[in-house]
Amino acid sequence: MPPETGAEAHFRALESLYASAPINRLFVSRLEIPEEGFARIRFEIGPEHHHAAGAAHGTSYFKMLDDAAFYAANSLVTDRFLLTTAFNLLFTRPIVAGPVIAEGRWVSGRRRVFVADARLIGPDGEEAARGTGTFMRSRIPLSSLKGYAPALP
Asked: Distance between CA 94 and CA 129 in Å, rounded?
């Protein structure tokens, strides 16, 4: 099979970048970018993510929602790393344990500022949280980041 090129190569390189981030050693998770403007992160919530009352701490919600929205937006940008400039979060249900999916979608913007939203789907298939973020182009070239690498054939 020939190596992927264009958008597909960019999506695989972003998936590689996600996997290379040291923070992701703390989360059992996997990023998928099936198409431009959409990202999905599958992850597992367990007791190590709990607050004192025995459910997932909000930092877990934020991390996955921010990442899903961020990668949905960065899928449209092939030259620069984006930075989160703001993120609003709405918690709707607690998650105690199990597989969770964060889905991010680009909403608007293609030049300097991008808006994307994300939703968190709990193990029961119900939405547990949602968020909207704004992301700005940084001065950091994606090509300069060690983890940003196209998939090998």
From this structure: 9
